[in-house]
Every structure is written in structure tokens, then in C-alpha cells.
Amino acid sequence: MAGAAFIGADERASNYEARITIYVVLACIVAASGGLLFGYDIGISGGVTSMDPFLKEFFPVVYRRKHSPTASTDDHYCKYDNQGLAAFTSSLYIAGLIATFGASYTTRVFGRKPTILIGGCAFLIGAGLNAGAVNLAMLIIGRIMLGVGVGFGNQAVPVYLSEMAPPKFRGGLNMLFQLATTLGILIANCVNYGTQNIKPGGWRLSLGLAAVPASLMTFGGLFLPETPNSLVQRGHLKEGKAILEKIRGTTSVEAEYQDLLEASDVAKTVKHPFRNIFKPRSRPQLVMAFFLPAFQLLTGINSILSYAPVLFQSLGFGGSASLYSSVLTGAVIVFASLLTIATVDRWGRRKLFMLGGVLMVVCQVAIAIILAVKYQGQESLSKQNSALVVVLVCFFVLGFGWSWGGLGWLVPSEIFPLETRSAGQSITVAVNLLFTFAIAQCFLAMLCAFKFGIFLFFAAWEAIMTLYVFFLLPETMNVPIEEMINVWRKHWFWKNVVPPASVDREQQLAVK
Predict the structure, then answer these.
(1) Which regions span the lipid bilayer (predicted)?
(2) Where in the sequence is the domain holding 347, given as residue range(s)?
(3) Of 371, 386, 360, 387, which Cα lies nearest the Cα of 461?
């Protein structure tokens, strides 16, 4: 009988009725503002750390090295190599990593909406501390509070979007998080370009303007509905069904509602989600929750986006030219996100992953070759080669934006069953932030040590991750979120790991 329950659920998936409603679109837009904040914080730090007044006040050693008239070509790769400066950027991510485990608890016990609100409040506090910083300690504490906001926001928002969206539109609506992230990066680069000439306090304006999207997330979040999945899981059945009817635009939601009830029944038997996530049923999802966010950062994208002005200045671009180039790459990644929204529910996740991976490898290798051949014993690259590097960086960002940028968040958020969804998202966010922290902390030192080889380092990882997707990631397009288990049962490799439907129900009910 247990097996029959699962078979019936699989059949119900074809009876789901839903359409895009203005209600669900507005809710998803407000929720996705968490991505706007995440992107703003990624983009703003690189521009601020390249501003002379900021460096002179907090990192005078870097300021003196930057303006040294006797610097050699090798020194250009190394002039920003300072662990304190790296800590300014990376402290946000280690704080987010720790915060996401607390966010997992609030997401599961209190709901997705309260977790989003906590993240917004933390962002507001962090923005205020950064804008008013009078010493390095205050600056770092502000970054830590922003990290708490990232931990809570990135934990709740992708799950919220996946649960609110109808299955056949889930990819596009979930990609609103990535679109908002890329818009945040673009806005941050534009702000930095505008504030660089406001001296000596332009950097304060750049950091303080994070309060604008934080306010949108916090006060807009007050009007968000809770997801039906969370309401049903926490026992609010009538309210959950009412919200489901409202966001689907129809009263014929019995098939999807029944799936939610069954998923909730299983979830209630699981008292320790982090322990249950290691069971065979969740093993493929656990592997994806680790490798997808890890690979997302091993593309090198955050190094390029976080340190774009620093990177371009290291290659001999002037201050204004480096920030202008950063604005250009920010615009490209926004365009790439729009492409993904248009294609993710038509072409599928796997095809976008692989196309983006191939493009990134080609661009990184080409950049390394140009720097190896043309950037030797010179103060800076020629205008032609500088333009070519910027073009290649833009194509690299394009490849990332339509593949790993959004899909690295989308796929983990849609593959976990309800009983381990909050725990799975916590692992995804924690791994993402762990690798973000490690690369942010090490990138300037790696650039100094590897020089042009840094691009070959990331290209090698991009080749590995493209093969990983080809062999191990099944297609999840158009699969109802509570029916994702069947995807793994049909995959050539994972079917040997996931228990068959005939025994799965008994195993789940046996977990305490």
C-alpha cells in the first residue's frame, strides 16, 4: 500500500492546474529582492576597495603600494595582496555561512517569510554600520551583519520561489533571484562609478546605499504570503489550501494539495532533518547540494565580480576605466540572466549548464594566453589588448550568467523533498558561502602567485564541472517539486542509490 501511495502521487502530477497570477509574480519579485542585496554586496566591495580615500583610511599599506613609482610588472599583480583587505570582503561570507544554520531552523519551524524578514533587518543594520564606520572593527562588524542577512536571505528566498511557482514556470520564477542578484551587481558598479569622485566620503555612500534594497526586502516582506508548503508542513491546512488556490489562480488544486499533505505527513516523521538527509533517499540531492554551489564559485566568477575594479587596475587599467569595465560586465550578467529566464523552462537545466561551461573555459584560456604573451615587462596592456580582455571577460560573464549563475541556486532549491528541504538549502548556502569566503580571502594572494595562471586554474575547474553535469545531473525541468524523487529513480547512476518506490514509504515512516 505504501508503494501505491507513491504511484498515485506520481499520477497526480499530471493533473496539476495552475497559471501565472499577478499575486504570485508580485510575491516572487519582493522575495527576490534578497538577491538584489546579495548582488549589491558582491559588486560594491570591489569598487570600494579600489578607491583611494577608503584605502588611505583603512589600509594605508595597500594605498602606498598601489601608488609606488618603482613597482615592477609582477608588483601589478600583487599590489592589492593584503589579507586585511581580503578579510573586508570575505568576512561577510563566513558570517553568512554560520548564520545559514540558524536560518534553517527558522525556515522550518517558523516559515519562509519570517526568515526573509530577519535577513532584511540584518542587512539594514550592516549597511548603517558600514556607512558610518570610523575604524576597521566597525567596518568588519558591519560586513558581518550583512553576512547574517545573506545567510538568512539565501536560505529562504530560493526555497520560497520554488514553492510558490507552478511547476512549469518554476525555473523562470526562481531565476528572479539570480536576475535580482545580477541587477544588484550592476547597480553597485554604477554606484561605485558615480561615487569614486566624491571625496573623501564617496565610499560611505556606496556602502550605505545597501539600505535601499534592504528596506524593500524588509518592509515588502511584511506583505508576503507564506508558502502553502510551509503552512501545510506546520499544520495550517485550511490556510495552506487557501493560499495554494490564490497563487494558482484556480480552485482545482486538489491534486497538488494532496501531494503537499503526503509530503507533510512524511516530514512530520522526521525530527532530525540534518540526520535524515544522509539517508539513501536524499543522497543524490545531498551530493548536488555540495558540488553545485562549490562548482559555482570555482568558476572564478565571484573573484571577477567582487574584485573586478581591483583586477582591471592590476592589469594596468586606470581607476575610472576599471570601474567602467566593471559596469559593462555587470550589464552583461543582467542580460545573461534575462536569457536564462527566457530559456530555462524550454531548453532545460542541463543544456544551459553545459553551454555555459564550454564558453567559460574558452574565455578563461584565451585571457590567460593574452596575459602570458602580451603582459610581460610593460606598465599596462595596450588599448587593443585591454579591450580584448574586457570582451573576453564579458563573454565569460555571459556564459556564467546563463548557466551556473542562476542554475546553481535553482537546481538545489527544487530537488529536495519537503522533510529535508530546509536542511538541504542550508547545506547549499553554507557550501556556497564557504567557497565564496575561501576564494575571496585567497584570490588576491592567488593572483599574486599565479599571475595569468589564475585564469587557467579556474578554466580547469570549469571543464570538470561541465563533465559532472553531463554524467550526473538529471533534467529537472517541468517536474513538480514534490515529485522530484522519481527523477533520481530513472537516472542511470542514481537509480542504484535511491530506494525504489515499493520500499521508500516504509523507510521514511521508520525514520524518527
Answers:
(1) 20-40, 85-103, 115-134, 173-195, 201-224, 286-309, 321-341, 353-375, 387-411, 423-446, 452-473
(2) 2-510
(3) 360
Q: Is the pLDDT of residue 5 over 50?
A: no
Q: How many domains does the chain have?
A: 1
Q: Scan for cell 583603512, then name that residue.
A: 58
The answer to whether the beta carbons of residues 505 and 5 sit under 8 Å apart is yes
DSSP E strands, 376-484: none
What is the residue whose three cell numbers read 599571475? Answer: 451
Q: How many CA within 13 A on the CB side of residue 55?
A: 21
Per residue in 457-478, pLDDT tens?
Answer: 999 999 999 999 999 999 999 8
Which conformational region is residue 209 in: left (phi greater than 0), alpha (psi within -120 to 50 degrees), or beta?
A: alpha
114: number of Cβ within 10 Å: 17
Q: How far is CA 49 from CA 61, 117, 309, 414, in A?
A: 13, 29, 8, 36
Predicted local distance difference test score (pLDDT) of residue 281 = 84
Is the distance from CB of 498 to CB of 283 less than 8 angstroms? yes
Q: Which amino acid belongs to residue 445?
A: A
CB count within 10 Å of CB 377 equals: 7
- What is the mean pLDDT of the segment spanning 341-366? 93
How many CB atoms sit inside 10 A of residue 97's CB? Answer: 22
Distance CA 272, CA 462 (A): 35
| CATH number, residue 259 | 1.20.1250.20
Please report the DSSP string for 162-227 in residue order: HHHS-GGGHHHHHHHHHHHHHHHHHHHHHHHHHHTTSTTTHHHHHHHTTHHHHHHHHHHHTTPPPP
Q: Which amino acid is at 119?
A: G
Q: Residue 512 pLDDT more than 50?
A: no
280: preceding bond cis by omega (within 30 degrees)? no
Mean pLDDT over 426-446 rounds to: 84
Cell representation of residue 414: 527544487
Q: What is the pLDDT of residue 8?
A: 47
Nearest to 161 by CA among 410, 400, 348, 347: 410
The span from the CA of 490 to the CA of 288, in Å, is 16
Number of residues written out for the chain: 512
* pTM reported for the whole predicted model: 0.73
Which amino acid is located at 428 in the chain?
A: T
CA–CA separation, 321 vs 303, rounded Å?
A: 18
Three-class SS of 241-297: HHHHHHHHCCCCCHHHHHHHHHHHHHHHCCCCHHHHCCCHHHHHHHHHHHHHHHHHH
Tell me the C-alpha distance between 44 and 119, whole Å: 19
Pull the grid cell for residue 149: 542577512
Q: How many CB atoms lie within 10 A of CB 14?
A: 9
- Residue with C-alpha cell 546579495? 38
